[in-house]
Amino acid sequence: GIEGGFPGLIAGDVRELTWREVDEWAGESGATLGTRRTIPGVEHLYAMGRTIETNSIDALLIIGGFNAYLGAHMMVQERERFQAFNIPIVCVPASIDNNLPGAELSIGVDTAINNIVWALDHIKASAAASRRCFVTETMGRFCGYLAQVSGMAAGAELVYLHETGMTLEGIVQDAHRMRDAFEGGRDLFLVVRNEEANKEYSADFLARAFEEEGGGLFDVRLNNIGHLQQGGEPTAYDRLLATRLTAFALDVLDEQFEKQRHKAFYVGRTAAGGLGAQPLEHMMDEVDADFRRPLEQWWLTYRGIGGAVSLKGAPMPPTLEIFDAEP
Hints:
Layout: H1 6-11, H2 19-22, H3 45-54, E1 60-64, H4 66-77, E2 89-93, H5 109-125, E3 132-138, H6 145-154, E4 158-160, H7 168-183, E5 188-194, H8 203-214, E6 219-224, H9 236-258, E7 264-269, E8 275-279, E9 287-288, E10 293-294, H10 305-310
Parallel strand pairs: 1-2, 2-7, 3-5, 3-6, 4-5
Antiparallel strand pairs: 7-8, 9-10
């Protein structure tokens, strides 16, 4: 194992892992080997190559997020200059942002969703005897998966995403719908915002705007879930997903050894429910490099559902089909 991600590979912090040592990792939170978000620079590549050669490393299984994928991609791009990088490499998705290509769901996401929904349920319960709007924010950077899915699960009326954008006009319309809802007898309103939805229209801005438009009809509270989203013991689903993905990644490496090749892949669970491997050298063709997320995100078909089913006058999501079932 390599301690501390790419900085550990650069520094040569490599040690043997025993079966006894790793036996209980599946049920533990965090990264026992340590994790860093550092992307190696060109000046670090020689040291990385030396570590691989000195420790007779035959392959790399890299478990991590977007930066880990970028670091592995750089190694593949530099294979002609650094022969030590001509070994099989497989990347396994592990990021609560759920922003990695080729993976419908990353390791850690299910645990984060459960933590967020738990927090939102308790926030809602605190308003049982009052008329109140709660505005809260989720992690995920420029990927709105956490906000969208946790918002749906917790019954949020409004979810703001970077993918769909935010406008002042839209916020005003939402404020009017919120006021109409409270005037119609609603006691509780939940708003979830992706942390990078818009750099100008922050969660604090939303809370103050809704408070002003409410005119005293309801209270507005701003709640920050914070790093609670990253903690906790992994859910059963995450443990099983991690086991499936790493086992599949090891099979991919075995195939490379059998064929005496040194290709690089990133693996993941596909939208069809199976597991797949894609060539790492083509990774950048599948992602939006500026916003660090896949070009195609399957879950965006869910956007707008919360408002459509709970707010009068809210637009119907274009992907939500309505069927008229005749008796």
